[in-house]
Design brief:
Keywords: Cell outer membrane, Membrane, Receptor, Signal, TonB box, Transmembrane, Transmembrane beta strand, Transport. The chain has 697 residues and is mainly β. The chain is 6% helix and 58% strand. β24 (422-441) and β25 (444-455) form a beta hairpin.
């Protein structure tokens, strides 16, 4: 009752009264923005693909502390975070592996041998917008079958010298401070952004991040620019990741980072400490005129991580280990095209080349058992990818569009530990895309598309195959997942009161990955079966009048296995079936329905009140669909006031303090025969409140 009263008071204080209508100043709608997550930069509304954009303004107004919070509001995107920031797009996931391709300004961020999505070290204050591509595409090669998330950082756009500073303070001693200086002088443009973030965390997880983004560009002309940018982040966190909380621990130690092992064992489970550094240096060259365009990037990304797994520090100190990972990634990309005009026909071909080289060294020590053999955990990973694409974009009589293209990629993986186990594999993949479309007006587009692309298995899958696969699951048997996707899409900026972006899709997944067993012996991860997905994704927004606007998002997903077997527990005996049939079962942790209703009120000039109601439907926890996690509804609210160069805000997220967790029990394990599900939980968060101020000049 107390939680509800707090939430109701928060809403009642800021809910605006009816006022006389004022003239609306129409901003540029995000469907008018140029999309860079494609082979040819065109407006989002004319892109024949299921694509969503989150602007920097939206990130600010939702009070997002990390990218995950924002992505969860996008249709078809599900937050699957345990303690690593991970998302699933259209249900396409595998155990212990990363998901979609993550890019920062088009530069891939493939971290470590498991390729988890390291979202936490990307500061929101540096982000201009996020582009989320759900469709099959050819722009970014292997991995794009699980979607593409391109995080575009801020750039200088105004003449003169400009800057801004901001500070906020919220629950759990959370505070953020940012300062930036940017502008354009003569032929130069520049940007410097510095940010600091600290929180003690809902679960007593102390987190610190210091980030610096610097850009310098020289504009040879209005069409040609060369530039360099540097991004560096230091990120440290003490996290409960490393041991899941079971029901008794969840009920009694929900917000504790340290907790007893069980009701009968008082030894404390300790936390994990991570220290991460991520640096990017990139050189850019771009040219665009009425006829031709060229974009090229040369980059280096350095990633260092010290991971101290301390869970059993007091129970079994000999199992405590420290991993030290160092990774260098070099990328080269160049693409370009030419706009041809033949009477009523426009034709834009484009071609691109990509090269990526990754070198990752990992070492492990056991500080309390220095003589322990670590040969299997000390390895060197080398991965190279070569890609080439050709894209063709036709427009007939300014109405009928036709886009088609193909891409050829070759990926080579070599992983060697000190045993020595060696995995040395390569695969060649051909992706393609075809999409006819019809533009009713310059503000409306209807398209159909078909495309094939791939998800290349992580190096860790190859390592497990060479270490444990034997003749049953050798590394040469691991094939990339193949996804064939068909879509019908409709985008329409009808007027300022109604804009819509809707997609109907069907995807056919081949060779999806899962755990492989030979009898009772684990053989790593392998291609265990096929799946199919169909769904509807909807976004709509508008400004109905001067004092009221809305935002809607909704998703329906039916994603199930069509073939395959897994290791699972039988009910009610709690015995193990190593080859349980999963055909016809829904893919776990993907809700059938999810959605967002957002309301925006503008009672006075400069004053804005927003409220979001977020719904996530019930989800299966296990492969065989016998355990469900209930649906969850959370409410966020924010009030802001802009006065001259100043801005003030107060926000609340999950204001009714809904309990949120990620549940792990894919095998459907019971506490005992005829027992209850033995679910394990990663706590995700609770109610959060914040106040902040910013100044721009």
């Amino acid at each position: 009752m107390k939680r509800c009263l707090v939430g109701l008071i928060f809403l009642a204080v800021f809910l605006p009264a009816y006022v006389m209508a004022l003239e609306i100043k129409e901003p540029v709608h995000k469907m008018d923005e140029l999309v860079v997550t494609s082979t040819n930069k065109i407006n989002a509304i004319n892109t024949p693909a299921s694509l969503s954009i989150i602007t920097g303004t939206e990130l600010e107004e939702m009070g997002a502390k990390n990218v995950i919070e924002a992505l969860g509001k996008i249709p078809g995107v599900v937050d699957s975070s345990a303690k690593r920031g991970t998302v699933v797009i259209r249900g396409n996931k595998s155990a212990m592996a990363g998901g979609p391709v993550i890019l920062i300004d088009g530069i891939p961020q493939k971290i470590g041998d498991s390729r988890y999505s390291e979202f936490d070290f990307i500061p929101v204050a540096q982000i201009e917008r996020i582009e989320v591509l759900r469709s099959a595409g050819i722009a970014y090669g292997p991995g794009a079958a699980r979607g593409v998330i391109n995080i575009i950082t801020k750039k200088a756009k105004q003449e003169g010298i400009h800057g801004d500073v901001s500070a906020s303070y919220g629950s759990w001693d959370t505070h953020d401070e940012t300062a930036s200086l940017h502008g354009r002088q003569n032929q130069y443009d520049y940007m410097l952004n510095i940010g600091n973030h600290h929180t003690d965390g809902y679960e007593q997880e102390e987190e610190n991040r210091l980030s610096v983004l610097a850009r310098l560009g020289y504009n040879l002309s209005d069409q040609t620019r060369i530039g360099i940018w540097v991004n560096h982040m230091d990120y440290d966190i003490d996290t409960a990741y490393g041991f899941l909380k079971y029901q008794w621990q969840l009920e009694n130690y929900r917000r504790d980072i340290h907790f007893p092992k069980s009701e009968t064992d008082s030894d404390l489970i300790w936390h994990t400490e991570k220290e991460q550094q991520n640096s990017i240096i990139a050189l850019e060259l771009s040219h665009k005129d009425e006829k031709k365009f060229i974009d090229s990037t040369l980059s280096w990304t350095g990633y260092d991580e010290i991971d101290k797994s301390l869970a059993y520090l007091f129970d079994k100190p000999s199992s405590v280990y420290h991993n030290d990972s160092e990774q260098d990634t070099y990328t080269v990309s160049i693409s370009g095209g030419y706009h041809f005009k033949f009477g009523a026909i426009s034709y834009t071909p484009s071609i691109g080349l990509n090269y990526e080289s990754i070198d990752n060294d990992v070492s492990r020590i056991y500080p309390f058992d220095p003589g322990k053999n670590t040969d299997a955990y000390n390895f060197d990973l080398q991965e190279k990818t070569y890609g080439i694409f050709w894209d063709n974009d036709f427009l007939f009589q300014e109405k009928w569009g036709f886009k088609t293209g193909g891409r050829l990629d070759r990926t080579e993986v070599k992983l060697q530990d000190k045993v020595p186990n060696i995995a040395d594999e390569d695969r060649t993949m051909f992706s393609y895309f075809i999409a006819p479309s019809y533009r009713f007006t310059d503000k409306a587009n209807l398209y159909v598309s078909a495309g094939r692309n791939y998800w290349f298995p992580t190096p860790r899958y190859y390592a497990w195959a060479v270490e444990d696969g034997g003749t049953f699951n050798p590394p040469e048997n691991l094939e990339p997942e193949e996804v064939m996707t068909y879509e019908i899409g409709y985008k329409h900026m009808l007027n300022k009161a109604f804009n819509i972006n809707a997609t109907l899709y069907f995807s056919d997944y081949k060779d999806k990955f899962g755990s492989v067993y030979e009898g009772t012996t684990s053989r790593g991860r392998g291609n265990i079966g096929d799946a199919e997905a169909k769904g509807i994704e909807l976004e709509a927004d508008g400004r109905v009048c001067s004092f009221f606007g809305y935002r809607l998002a909704g998703t329906y997903q039916d994603i199930q296995w069509t073939s395959g077997t897994v290791s699972a527990k039988l009910h009610p005996s709690n015995t193990t079936d190593k080859h349980a049939d999963i055909a016809g079962k829904q893919i776990y942790w993907v809700p059938e329905f999810s959605g967002l209703v957002g309301l925006d009120f503008f009672p006075l000039e400069g004053l804005k009140f927003s409220m979001d109601i977020n719904y996530m439907g019930e989800r299966y926890v296990d492969y065989l669909n016998r355990i469900k996690y209930p649906s969850k509804t959370t409410v966020d609210a924010r009030i802001s006031y802009a006065w001259n160069q100043w801005k003030f805000w107060v926000l609340g997220k999950n204001i009714f303090d809904e309990d949120l967790e990620y549940v792990s029990n894919t095998a459907g394990t019971l506490t005992s025969a005829d027992g209850e599900p033995k679910n394990a939980y990663y706590v995700q968060g609770g109610a959060y409140f914040e106040a902040g101020i910013s100044y721009s000049f």
